[in-house]
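We emphasize that the prediction below concerns an isolated chain of 126 residues; any contacts that depend on oligomerization or on bound cofactors are therefore not represented. The input was used exactly as deposited, without trimming of termini.
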Amino acid sequence: QVQLVESGGGLVQAGDTLRLSCKASGRTYRNSAMGWLRQPPGTGRQFVAGISGTDSTTDYADSVKGRFTISRDNAKNTTYLQINSLKPEDTAVYYCAASRYYNSVTYVRSGDANDWGQGTQVTGSS
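Result of the prediction step, given as a token string:
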């Protein structure tokens, strides 16, 4: 059974740092893209960051560039999202996503990932 399990969310002050983790089990994603999307209250899901499988090429939404960093550890089948200088507008449920077949982060950016985690809440208070 394929599972993506996120952890690391919580309630933090604006300006603080968080590190989200997404541990995959049931299959390996070492040759395919993984990433993070988020859903703020009352809005649709939006792309945050993605990372390719073979060479760890990264892609970010403009709103998080310079503050968020995505990485992956293929040996642990895990991807991470480092959130620095958190803003109240970063408040959202953060979802991990992974493609089973494609290396390009395009498939994660578009929301066409095959596998999804259950989400972890991140709340930034001002």
